[in-house]
Write a structure and sequence with these properties.
The complex is a heterotrimer of chains A (about 375), B (about 350) and C (about 90). Helix content of chain A is about 40%, strand content about 15%. Chain A has a domain of about 45 residues. The two termini of chain A are about 25 Å apart. In chain A, helix 11 links the parallel strand 8 and strand 9. Chain A contains 16 helices and 13 strands. In chain B, helix 5 packs across helix 8. The N and C termini of chain B lie far apart (about 50 Å). With about 90 residues, chain C is α+β, with helices and mostly antiparallel strands. In chain C, a hairpin with a 2-residue loop joins strand 2 and strand 3. Classes of the chains: A alpha/beta (about 375), B alpha+beta (about 350), C alpha+beta (about 90). Chains A and B meet through helix 1, helix 2, helix 3, helix 5 and helix 16 of A and helix 7 and strand 15 of B.
Chain lengths: ~375, ~350, ~90
């Protein structure tokens, strides 16, 4: 696969890992946060922790749009779809996320019309094909996904498709990073920046992290060589006492972002004054809603939503794990009351949430005496 | 020897789709409800087929239900799946299928040509596999049930005496073999459903693996510890079950797992892992180190076996776990999924 | 939020400039070019695809530059060490 396989080349990976070991030395302990859930997934998928030296600690950040969605919002979305002529359409990621009355799949088993879609356009297509029904698209994702939702809503309006609406849970990345840095127990040296969000917002929005907070941030791709090269770049900055924004993912990320995508977002969305992030609490100006111009395609304006807040059990320490203050297995509920099959907290719910990832991958590797030589 | 029922341990309030996906939820249902009630208290590792003693002769018997949408897809249809699936379950338990009996549950409104096509496909598959369809039953249910048709097949077979399949015989150092590329069937079905705007030149791999299994047995019989056909849940699920049953670690070498380019591309696009995708014409085998070279050579020379590969080995650690390793020293645990693999966007 | 794959544009729909087909090792997928209106790709271009939309064009030059940088890792520093040893001017 072009533009994929080159960045997974084993020899180059080993070589880059060697360079990381050389730069990292043994004296200093480095704490780097990868913000985006996709990077968390990549770290586990490619076994990157195995080849990084022990004094580089990767902390998983809050960039998992499924994980940070409060249960109440899932309940709200499902309550709209309780109506018999409504089709609930969402990405596969959402299907097993539990609301208080069960997940979308469990609702499907009880008779709700629930469909997996692979694109917001698929949801709009469902609306075209089912004129007697109303398709409600449960939209999730950061700025990577929001423009596609926006464009789809614009198309719905242009085509006069009225049996379609979006239940919008798009969130923005910068306030999440700010919440991390504002946290009093936070001790981070640097950030691995979200590569795909940056194809939309560019690299400028991170400048305050470098300038005001004095933390280096490297916008990174998702292949093993991308992430390792980003670690090299961060180490070089840290050793030189620098703090700047760098773009490792140049082949895809334009420094100024994608203007057309940003225009689409500005056309359709506005910032909510505040939004609740599961595990992090209320954050102002951190989420999007459909604006009045497109009110007809806003599920929250077309339908009544209960808007009930559902709080996680006090014992669940999701917030601290999200902020990187605690490791997953340090939460009292981890692996006991809270498992991937019966998730209690946000981070166990999605396979890229820190707790789920740790449970599925690290947990059992930690039990190994040693990884013997690889064939 | 009839078993007394043991207590039910399955606590889910209702049955979900996940319980039929072949993964963790399926296992919970089978081990927690069906097995205690039907097999009694101390049932051993659950295999693909059962060996039953009739007047001193051991026969193998297995049953399988086939529920697939669409009924017909590139490379096959439900008729072939039904025959090959059961022949394969018997083959990997060390038996040659002798006869099948089949039940068709048909949806009222099903066009006759569709039914005829499936029965023809089944007849041809049975001839190709060298197995007799001995008897059958039909039921019709109301329109709206049965997704056009559901098929179940039950097969009996004679044991191939040169081999004993038992997960408890697996040892550290044994090698893990795979008969050919994984993921073809599951991805073909996904694309054939037409819900994705994806197209690829892929076909289901449905076929009888009995000839290859017999080749393997001839070349390496005494060294074969275990075999399984990785259907729903994929190779990851089968190997996880083995790891659990024998308490050892299954370590796979990523670079050696055969996957067709198009399967790989579709999986990357959808965020799926080929190890979790269903196969209908492949099998896994664990073979002792003394016999592995003979095994692979024989398979590679046999028709349909040219892509057979050693994909890993059995180690002490990580116990009860499947681990995939990369050429650069990274590794990841591959678990059983709870339900069907779901495409993701994150 | 993050799963995005590179694909090569093989066809642009004649009746809809925003609709294209990409190829990813033989898998063909219909995608939407609506977000690349300012920099329309043509058949042969590589784009990054996320939820069925092209997010960005992939720069072959930047990819090649990156591979070169990675291949030279360690060598640059090695050369620097040697030169430092000569006791000439400061090198950074």
């Amino acid at each position: 696969m072009r533009y994929v396989d080159e960045f997974r080349e084993p020899q180059l990976i080993s070589k880059t890992a060697e360079e990381i070991r050389r730069l990292a030395g043994t004296e200093r302990h480095y704490r780097m946060m990868e913000v985006c859930g996709g990077h968390t997934h990549a770290i586990y998928r490619f076994g990157l922790k195995d080849i990084l030296p022990k004094n580089i600690e990767l902390i998983h950040g809050p960039g998992c749009p499924v994980c940070v969605l409060p249960m109440g919002r899932i309940d709200d979305g499902l309550s709209i779809a309780q109506q018999s002529n409504v089709i609930f359409a969402a990405f596969g990621d959402m299907m097993r996320v539990p609301g208080t009355q069960g997940s979308p799949f469990e609702h499907k088993a009880r008779g709700m019309d629930v469909r997996i879609v692979y694109s917001p356009s698929d949801a709009l297509k469902l609306a075209r094909l089912n004129p007697a029904k109303h398709v409600m698209f449960f939209a999730i994702g950061f700025e990577t996904t929001a423009p596609s939702t926006a464009l789809t809503i614009m198309r719905a309006k242009a085509e006069g498709i009225r049996n379609f609406s979006v239940f919008c849970n798009h969130v923005t990345i910068i306030p999440a990073i700010r919440a991390i840095l504002d946290s009093p127990d936070m001790r981070l040296d640097a950030f691995i920046g979200p590569g795909h969000v940056s194809t939309v917002i560019g690299c400028r929005p991170y400048e305050w992290i470098a300038q005001n907070e004095r933390k280096p941030i490297v916008v990174s791709g998702f292949e093993p060589l991308d992430m390792l090269q980003s670690v090299v770049m961060l180490l070089r900055q840290l050793k030189a006492g620098e703090a700047k924004v760098e773009n490792q993912y140049k082949r895809v990320v334009p420094w100024e972002g994608n203007r057309a995508a940003l225009r689409a977002m500005a056309e359709v969305f506005e910032l909510r004054p505040y939004f609740e992030w599961r595990g992090l609490g209320f954050i102002s100006q951190s989420a999007l809603r459909v604006n009045d111009k497109y009110a007809e395609w806003d599920a929250e304006q077309r339908f009544e939503v209960p808007g009930i807040r559902v709080t996680d059990p006090k014992a669940a320490q999701c917030g601290e794990v999200l902020k990187g203050v605690l490791k997953p297995h340090q939460c009292k509920l981890f692996g006991r009351e809270c498992t991937p099959e019966h998730p209690i907290g946000a981070l166990m719910v999605s396979s890229e949430g820190s707790c789920a990832a740790y449970h599925n991958y690290e947990h059992r590797k930690a039990a190994m005496v040693s990884l013997s030589s690889v064939a | 020897m009839l078993a007394e029922s043991a207590p039910v341990r399955f606590r889910d309030p209702q049955i979900e789709m996940a319980h039929g996906a072949g993964g963790r939820a399926s296992r919970k249902l089978v081990e927690g409800l069906f097995a205690p009630l039907l097999f009694g208290g101390a049932f051993g590792p659950l295999g693909d087929a059962a060996h039953v003693d009739i007047n001193g002769t051991k026969v193998a018997i297995t049953t399988d239900g086939f529920v697939v949408k669409p009924l017909s897809f590139p490379g096959g249809s439900i008729g072939e799946l039904a025959v090959n699936g059961t022949v394969n379950d018997l083959a990997v338990s060390g038996a040659r299928a002798e006869a099948l009996v089949v039940t068709y549950v048909l949806e009222a409104g099903l066009p006759t040509p569709v039914l005829e096509a499936e029965v023809r496909a089944m007849a041809k598959a049975a001839r190709d596999a060298g197995v007799r369809i001995a008897a059958g039953d039909t039921k019709v249910v109301e329109h709206g049930k049965a997704d056009q048709m559901y098929v179940t097949t039950t097969g009996i077979g004679r044991l191939l005496h040169e081999v004993t399949i038992d997960p408890r015989s697996v040892r550290v150092g044994d090698r893990i073999l795979l008969s050919g590329p994984i993921g073809d069937h599951g991805i073909t079905i996904l694309l054939a459903r037409g819900e994705l705007d994806l197209e690829a030149d892929l076909r289901s791999d449905t076929r009888s693996v009995l000839p290859l299994v017999e080749t393997l047995i001839r070349a390496a019989g005494p060294g074969i510890r275990w075999m399984r056909d990785p259907t729903r849940g994929g190779a990851a699920t089968s190997l996880n079950e083995l790891a659990r049953d024998c308490g050892l670690g299954m370590v796979l070498f990523e670079g050696q797992i055969p996957v067709r380019d198009a399967v790989r591309g579709a999986c990357e696009l959808l965020g799926l892992d080929p190890l979790h995708i269903a196969n209908e014409g492949q099998f896994l085998a664990v073979v002792s180190p003394e016999y592995v070279d003979a095994a692979i050579n024989a398979l590679n020379l046999a028709p349909g076996g040219s892509e057979a590969q050693v994909i890993g080995e059995v180690r002490e650690q990580p116990a009860g776990t499947v681990l995939v390793t990369t050429l650069y020293g990274g590794s990841r645990v591959v678990d059983m999924l709870v339900g069907d693999p779901l495409p993701r966007i994150c | 939020m993050c799963l995005a794959i590179p694909g090569k544009i093989v066809e642009i729909a004649s009746d809809n400039q925003d609709s294209a087909v990409v190829d990813v090792v033989g898998v063909r997928r219909k995608i939407d070019l609506g977000l690349l209106q300012d920099d329309k790709p043509v058949p042969g271009d590589w784009v990054l695809i996320h939820v069925g939309f092209a997010m960005s064009k992939i720069s072959e030059q930047d990819a090649a530059d990156q591979m070169n940088t990675l291949r030279m890792l360690g060598e640059m520093d090695g050369t620097m060490q040697e030169v430092k040893g000569y006791g000439l001017e400061e090198v950074n």
